[in-house]
Structures are given as structure tokens and as C-alpha cells.
Amino acid sequence: MNTPEQSQLGKPAPYVDRYDASLLFPISRQPKRDELGLHGTMPFFGADLWTAFELSWLTPRGKPQVAIAHVTVPCESPNIVESKSFKLYLNSFTNTAFASADAVRDRIRADISEAVWRGAPSQSSVGVRILTPELFDREPVHELDGLSLDRLDIECTEYTPDPTLLTAAFDEMPVEEVLTSNLLKSNCLVTGQPDWGSVQIRYSGPQIDQGQLLRYLVSFRNHNEFHEQCVERIFVDLRERCKPVKLAVYARYTRRGGLDINPFRTSHPIAVPANVRTARQ
């Protein structure tokens, strides 16, 4: 089993400009899920939405092409792909000729699918969409919908995750709310470099104390964990402390190295959000 410490994170890495799928570095999701007490069937559905802004290859006649790639990785896959390895992998397309954008899409789909499902008894596929320059102008920018928690004037003193901050009105009528914050920040599990994000929490059930929820989200500020793991931790803590009937947690993190990662987890089957970037991304 690969560990984050074995990856290329925080280490000098050669620039490989010829296609090389072996650069991809899968890491099992399970050890971090074990920390949350998650075994067997997960209490959520969802996916990790990746956007790759630095993708280029050559035509058969040697002319460079550029594109944006949207990659959707089901959270049911046993592995994530470490982000630096994903960047190195995409860089390896730079001086490699492909017959078409569709050929690039199919190659990325096959390679990422193999990496994230490696070791699983059955294999599935990731979703890949390639946007060529004539489609760039159709890429919208939109902030997460919902009521902003950041409007609250609160005191914050906790900067490592503290689920005991979360409370809900169990003796009152249930509500249905969509709450957002731009104050989510965590750090890379290996390098400690900052990861900046926005989060949307959609739920129905006992009304969550909004001030305490914001304090809880701020408490991730000095926490070292990958994006996907942070979102699953938020989901589990809200589920256990606030007892929502339905719950969905969606975070959009700012890009690093030309990549952004946007995990989505939901308690009930609903459509994965459209991969639409926010202004900070």
C-alpha cells in the first residue's frame, strides 16, 4: 500500500515530457476512513471533481494543443491519486503526439481509472471531459449557493478540528438549509502547505447552530489532511453530532500546480454538482 510519505510531495522531481502513466501515485482512502470509524459500506455517496488547467500535447504533425480537463472520480473507488503525481503525469503529455483530443481523453480515463481502482476486486471508470479552446468561453464562474456563515461576527479560538463545537436544536422543528463559508483552510498532509477552500453544507433536520458551525469549519485551519479527507471528516462529524436527516458536503479548493480538487459527499443519491469554479479558483 502506498503512503503519502512515499509520494513525490515535497521532493525534487524530474520533468518528464513523454507520456508515462507510471507517474500516477495512488493512495488508499481506507487508512483515513479508519480514523473516522468508516468500514464496509460508507455512509455517503459522491465524487471528487478535479479540474486540470495545464494540459497540452502534440498533434501527429507536432503542433502543440492546449485544453482543460474535468475529471470525476467516484468516492467508491478505493484510492485517490496524489495531486503532484497527477500533475507530473499530465506534464508527460507535453511532447507526446496524440491523434485527437478524444484520444487524450480516452488515455486519461483509462490511466486514472486503473490507478484509483487498483487492488479492487472489480473495476469501474472515472469521468473525463476535455475542453478545447473554442469551449473556454463557456466556462462559468459561480460562487457556491447558500446563506453565508461568514456574515457572523464570532470569536474563534480553535484551529484544529473540534467536533464538540457542533450543536443543533434537537427540541425544535426541523429545517432545511444550505449554508456556505469561504473560510475553510487546511494544510497538505505531507508538506504542510496551505490549502484554501470554500464549503457548502446542505441539510435537512435539526437546525445546526450557525455560529458553532462556522467555528468548527475555522478549526480546520492548522489541520494537515488531503482535501478529500477533510470533506469526509466534516460529513462524519456533522452526521454524528447534529443528526441531520439528509446531508451533503461540497468543498471547492483553490488550484495548486494547475489543479483544483473539489470533493462532494452526500447521504442520499443526488446528482454530483456541475464542476463550476468559484472566483478564487
Automatic annotation (TrEMBL):
- In terms of one coarse class, where is the protein primarily found? cytoplasm
Alphabetical list of InterPro entries matching this protein: GTP-CH-I_C/QueF, NADPH_dep_7-cyano-7-deazaG_red, QueF, QueF_N, QueF_type2
Residues that coordinate or bind NADPH = 83-84, 256-257
Which pathway is recorded for this entry?
tRNA modification; tRNA-queuosine biosynthesis
User: Could you say which residues bind substrate here?
Assistant: 81-83, 227-228
Q: Which UniProt keywords apply?
A: Cytoplasm, NADP, Oxidoreductase, Queuosine biosynthesis
Molecular function per GO = preQ1 synthase activity
Keyword check for NADP, yes or no: yes
Q: Nucleus as a keyword?
A: no
Q: Name one GO biological process term.
A: tRNA queuosine(34) biosynthetic process
The chemistry this enzyme catalyses reads: 7-aminomethyl-7-carbaguanine + 2 NADP(+) = 7-cyano-7-carbaguanine + 2 NADPH + 3 H(+)
Q: Where is the active site?
A: 188, 195
Q: PANTHER family under this entry?
A: NADPH-DEPENDENT 7-CYANO-7-DEAZAGUANINE REDUCTASE
Function of this protein? Answer: Catalyzes the NADPH-dependent reduction of 7-cyano-7-deazaguanine (preQ0) to 7-aminomethyl-7-deazaguanine (preQ1).
Query: What assembly does the database describe for this protein?
Result: Homodimer.
From the Swiss-Prot or TrEMBL record, give the protein name.
NADPH-dependent 7-cyano-7-deazaguanine reductase
Source organism per UniProt? Caenimonas aquaedulcis
